[in-house]
């Protein structure tokens, strides 16, 4: 049987933003916002998602990626017991839980950096950070310099080639698995993490828990360098993300199809998305808002492990600025669902349930069937019936003749609306159909009745 993550449909939460937690962690007391997060579990399950990527979760100074303490839940969200209870609630509903692992850097309030500030050259942790030099001062007033993530000196980079650092972080992972029973880790900044560190981490996690999933944040590069038997199970498919919105905006399905073909060797394992906590909302990126449904149709039926970022099911908008990502990470209460609910919500729910029902969409072979600038059809074939996705990004209705690569008598239109035929005949090995503008559908191929 395939691993759980190969059948995964993810819901992605940025908890500090979703719950409206304070931007800076200055309070002494603990505020349990997991009570509010728990209210989302029925909604996540109803949508058809069976996995949750939530983070960052651990004690930090501001946005969550400037870690203070890897073994303490961020007090703005709750304590360790409330996180443990939240994961238990998710598991009870059949939802796996993946958390952020911020291992490239720490915050300046992390104990090792504090010790370095205090003791400088005599600190036992001076080799825990990259590029530490007492020949210059950091821009933040330290009497020493160090490597910082992308020049942000509030994020000093850990020295992942140091055996002490590696063992400390592996102990953190063991703690998370044993204390909170998480099912995997999303590795922040995986594109710059030390490869040897990731290989050793893969061996460590394989010994901790069966099917423990490692997924890395990688934007550019050859994804197969990270996704292989020695390192990670998956990485973020930013290439598909970019080709989806630009392919629709430019009426150029060739860009999407080219991307899928190029990644054919590893695309079943890649983590696919249309927006996240770092990217402008897809509803803001699309020139034509009517493309929202066909974009999500592609997300749920093209190869990969689909992920829905909170609020996406309601088509909310948001753009980052030069100085802030807050618009991408808004406070939303799940009790607002009736007000926010829109036609897209129900369509996404239907797509998620189709993805879960048909194995072809989880691990089936991809085959391109029809391709023009404005129309695109592809098949997915694995266990169970052959499935075909057809998409039209033109404003006008399109007449399609889609070749069917296997024997079939008829095609069942799983997205048929009231005025459409739900059963389409297959004539001379082709499906002849009309597809309205800015729309798409899913066809299940049937043999003998």
From TrEMBL:
Q: What is its EC class?
A: hydrolase
User: Where are the coiled-coil regions?
Assistant: none
- Any Pfam family from its record, for instance, is Alpha-amylase
Query: Which residue ranges does the record assign to the Glycosyl hydrolase family 13 catalytic domain?
Result: 12-355
- State the Gene3D superfamilies in the record: Glycosidases, Golgi alpha-mannosidase II
Catalytic activities: Endohydrolysis of (1->4)-alpha-D-glucosidic linkages in polysaccharides containing three or more (1->4)-alpha-linked D-glucose units
Sorted alphabetically, which InterPro entries does this protein's record hold?
Answer: Alpha_amylase, GH, GH13_cat_dom, Glyco_hydro_b
Q: Indicate whether Hydrolase appears among the record's keywords.
A: yes
Q: Name one GO biological process term.
A: carbohydrate metabolic process
Entry keywords, A to Z: Carbohydrate metabolism, Glycosidase, Hydrolase
Q: Name one GO molecular function term.
A: cation binding
- Which domain of life does the protein's organism represent? Bacteria
Q: What is its EC number?
A: 3.2.1.1
Task: Report if keyword Hydrolase is assigned.
Answer: yes
- Family indicated by similarity: Belongs to the glycosyl hydrolase 13 family.
Can you name this protein? Alpha-amylase
């Amino acid at each position: 049987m395939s691993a759980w993550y190969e059948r995964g449909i993810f819901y992605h939460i940025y908890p500090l933003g979703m719950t409206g937690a304070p931007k800076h962690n200055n309070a002494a007391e603990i505020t349990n916002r997991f009570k509010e997060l728990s209210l989302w579990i029925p909604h996540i399950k109803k949508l058809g998602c069976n996995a949750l990527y939530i983070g960052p979760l651990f004690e930090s100074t501001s946005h969550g990626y400037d870690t203070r303490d890897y073994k303490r839940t961020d007090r703005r969200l709750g304590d360790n017991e409330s996180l443990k209870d939240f994961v238990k609630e998710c598991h009870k509903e059949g939802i796996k839980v993946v958390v952020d692992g911020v291992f490239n850097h720490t915050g300046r309030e992390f104990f090792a950096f504090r010790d370095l500030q205090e003791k400088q050259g005599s600190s036992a942790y001076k080799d825990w950070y990259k590029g530490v030099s007492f020949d210059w001062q950091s821009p933040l007033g330290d009497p020493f310099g160090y490597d910082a993530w992308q020049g942000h000196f509030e994020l000093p980079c850990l020295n992942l080639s140091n055996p002490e650092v590696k063992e400390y972080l592996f102990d953190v992972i063991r703690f998370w698995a044993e204390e909170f029973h998480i099912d995997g880790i999303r590795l922040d900044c995986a594109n710059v993490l030390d490869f040897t560190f990731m290989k050793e981490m893969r061996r460590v996690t394989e010994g901790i828990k069966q099917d423990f999933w490692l997924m890395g944040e990688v934007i550019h590069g050859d994804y197969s360098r990270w996704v292989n038997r020695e390192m990670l199970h998956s990485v973020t498919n930013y290439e598909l993300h970019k080709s989806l919105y630009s392919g629709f905006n430019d009426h150029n399905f060739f860009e999407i199809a080219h991307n899928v073909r190029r990644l054919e060797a590893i695309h079943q394992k890649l983590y696919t998305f249309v927006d996240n906590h770092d990217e402008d909302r897809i509803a803001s990126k699309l020139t034509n808002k009517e493309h929202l449904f066909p974009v999500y149709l592609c997300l749920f039926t093209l190869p990969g492990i689909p992920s829905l970022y909170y609020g996406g099911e309601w088509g909310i908008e948001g753009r980052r600025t030069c100085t802030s990502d807050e618009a991408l990470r808004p406070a939303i209460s799940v009790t607002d669902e009736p007000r926010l609910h829109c036609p897209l919500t129900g369509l996404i729910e239907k797509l998620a349930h189709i993805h879960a029902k048909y194995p072809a969409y989880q691990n089936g072979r991809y085959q391109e069937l029809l391709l023009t600038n404005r129309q695109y059809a592809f098949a997915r074939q694995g266990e169970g019936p052959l499935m075909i996705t057809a998409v039209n990004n033109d404003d006008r209705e399109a007449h399609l003749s889609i070749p069917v690569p296997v024997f079939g008598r008829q095609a069942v239109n799983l997205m048929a609306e009231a005025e459409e035929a739900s059963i389409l005949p297959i004539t001379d090995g082709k499906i002849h159909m009309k597809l309205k503008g800015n729309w798409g559908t899913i066809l299940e191929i049937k043999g003998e009745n």
